[in-house]
Every structure is written in C-alpha cells, then in structure tokens.
Amino acid sequence: MQQIRVILADDQQIFLEGLKNIFENHTTKNIEVSATTCSGKELVELAKKTNTHLLIFELNLQGMDGLEALQNLKNNKRIKKLVLSRYDDAKLVKSAFKNGADGYVLKNTDISELLYAVNELVSGNSYVGEGVHIQAKNGSQSPSGNGYQKAFKDGFIKRHSLTKRETEILTLITQALSNKQIAEELYISDQTVSVHRKNIMRKLGVTNTAGLIKEAYENFLVK
Questions:
Q1: How far is CA 219 from CA 125, 159, 199, 205, in A?
Q2: Which of 4, 50, 54, 55 is nearest to 26 (CA)?
Q3: For residue 190, how many other CB atoms are within 10 A of its CB?
Q4: Which residues fall within 8 angstroms of residue 44, CB to CB, at 6 or more apart?
Q5: Which of 102, 37, 30, 85 shows the shortest CA–CA distance to 63?
Q6: How far apart are CA 97 and CA 80, in angstroms?
Q7: Where are the domains of the chain?
Q8: Which pLDDT score, from 0 to 100, does residue 133 have?
Q9: How far apart are CA 82 and CA 86, in angstroms?
Q10: Are 4-128 and 145-218 equal in CATH topology?
C-alpha cells in the first residue's frame, strides 16, 4: 500500500491535533502527517520545500488564507490539494477549484469519506464531497446582499464577499481619504466611489464610515 505524505493546515490548533491523531492511528496506516501549520504562508513554504503528496487545509488560515495559498501553488501539479473546510458557500467552492484545488470536502463529513477523498486525489482523480455545491442552492452563482452577510459573519467570508474594487476602496477609506481623494487615486468618478461605498456598507451591515472602519480592522478585511 502506498505511503501518503500529507501536510495539514487549519486555523484551529486543536482540530489539527485531532486530525493528525486520526490519520496516524487509522487502521490503514498509509497516511503520514509530515507537518502541520495554522499559517497559509507557512503552508506554501512547506509545500515548496518538502517532498509531500497532498495538502489538506481549511480556507480560513492565519495571514495568507487558503485561496491565496492555492494561487501561490497553482503551477505545482505534483502536489494534490484537498480543501477541508466548514464553508459550503458555492462562491468559495468555485473559487477554490478555479485556483487549483483538486478536491473539496466539508468538515462535517465522516472520516471514511475523507479517507476516500485522499485516496482519490493521490490516484489522480478529483473529488467533490457530500454537501458541496458549485452552484448556489437558489440556482445563482452565489448568495449576495444582506442575506449573505446574515448567514456568514466571520471576517474570511466578509473579505471574499467584497469585489477587488470594493476592497481597494475600503483600504483607502481606512486611510481617511475622502470620496474625491479616492476617486483621484483610482481614476474614477466621485459618484462611482459613492456607489461602491454604499455597497460595501450594505455588505458589511454598517451605516456609517466609523462602523465601516471598525468592521474592516476587527475582521482583518484590509492589509
């Protein structure tokens, strides 16, 4: 039986220890955990410098998140990438596969399915776990608006619900720039900035600039 070397990454240390223990004590004994980390940046570094077969990781990691880690490892076809996440949002699942994930499994899955997914990936196949959907349940690409934010409250989800332009504008807002200054910085109109600002506030569930800045820093929405 092939020995499979894996690196585990998750934002919760206790989960990492539990998962490592499951792999090391499972009857098959064919999965060797070579490293664990809570950091997306360290995950990328470990993947590049170690001889490993598979990465199993959460999307919400410290510092660099899982989607960014995937982007950094996209050209590394040798290592298989399995997302093991609590997030079942179609937008994030689609982004994970678009950025190079080979499989996606939810954390509420049975250990037998996780082991099956591991073996599928190292055999050269892809795997989509039970309950994972590329399309949103209502048929659209992904949830949006206030309902989306009520369903998902943590900073990772909030960060990825913002468009690239909205993130740029939010960063400039936290630097105390006015709409006019932001418009000049980004070569767009004041009116466009105003529309983006209102959309950002709606997505983050705040009603004023002070609340917007507070939300941005508390949830690490800007770097």
A1: 36, 8, 17, 13
A2: 4
A3: 14
A4: 64, 69, 72, 73
A5: 37
A6: 12
A7: 4-128, 145-218
A8: 81
A9: 13
A10: no
Q: Residue 128 and residue 29: Cα distance in Å, rounded?
A: 24
> Each residue of 196-214: b (16+ CB within 10 Å) or e?
bbebbbebbebeeeeebbe
Of 105, 111, 123, 110, whose CA–CA distance to 23 is shortest?
111
**Spatial separation of the C-alpha atoms in residues 17 and 8, rounded to whole Å:** 10
Residue 19's pLDDT band (cuts 50, 70, 90): very high
Q: Select the more confidently predicted residue: 56 or 64.
A: 56
The pairing of beta strand 103-106 with beta strand 127-128: parallel
Architecture of the domain spanning 4-128: 3-Layer(aba) Sandwich (3.40)
Mean pLDDT across the stretch 206-223? Answer: 81
Highest mean pLDDT among 79-83, 86-90, 165-169, 217-221: 79-83
Residue type, 30: N
CA nearest to 87, candidates 104, 63, 62: 104
What tokens does 152 get? 């998902």
Euclidean distance between CA atoms 106 and 203, whole angstroms = 25
Is the domain defined by 145-218 classed in CATH 3.30.428.10?
A: no
Which pair of tokens denotes residue 75?
């050209």
**DSSP code string of 15-80:** HHHHHHHHHHHSTT--EEEEEEESBHHHHHHHHHHS--SEEEE-SS-BSS-HHHHHHHTTT--SSE
